[in-house]
């Protein structure tokens, strides 16, 4: 057992919820890309409810938008961890950051493809 593990039961759930909200707040305040994706979701999710598609298609349209937020949170976490280790330029640090960026690029392409396939 890790000495850093804390509470159990409901207390753990309340603590975890607080940590999650702290993470969302940190991403929104500190990451312009996250704010841009939130704006994209604010636009696209309501549109998903306005277009005439099946429930399953609507769920997919919304899910790919939310996936972009998830990937950006992971990307930001990787960048923060790399920067915490060292601000020196290193090929492995560059690779880690570039791969996080590439993951986000793939998700943005997925949004375009999924929305295109479903709506066209």
TrEMBL record:
It is found in: Cell inner membrane. It comes from the Bacteria. GO terms for biological process: phosphatidic acid biosynthetic process. A divalent metal cation binds at residues 31, 79. Its cofactor is Mg(2+). One of its GO terms (molecular function) is ATP-dependent diacylglycerol kinase activity. Mn(2+), Zn(2+), Cd(2+) and Co(2+) support activity to lesser extents. The active site is at residue 72. The keyword Secreted does not apply. CDD domains: DAGK_IM (cd14264). It is a multi-pass membrane protein. The keyword NADP does not apply. GO terms for cellular component: plasma membrane. The chain crosses the membrane at residues 33-53, 60-82, 102-119. ATP binds at residues 12, 19, 31, 79, 97-98. It catalyses: a 1,2-diacyl-sn-glycerol + ATP = a 1,2-diacyl-sn-glycero-3-phosphate + ADP + H(+). Keywords: ATP-binding, Cell inner membrane, Cell membrane, Kinase, Lipid biosynthesis, Lipid metabolism, Magnesium, Membrane, Metal-binding, Nucleotide-binding, Phospholipid biosynthesis, Phospholipid metabolism, Transferase, Transmembrane, Transmembrane helix. Substrate binds at residues 12, 58, 72, 101. Its EC number is 2.7.1.107. Belongs to the bacterial diacylglycerol kinase family. Catalyzes the ATP-dependent phosphorylation of sn-l,2-diacylglycerol (DAG) to phosphatidic acid. Involved in the recycling of diacylglycerol produced as a by-product during membrane-derived oligosaccharide (MDO) biosynthesis. This is Diacylglycerol kinase. It comes from Pseudomonas eucalypticola.
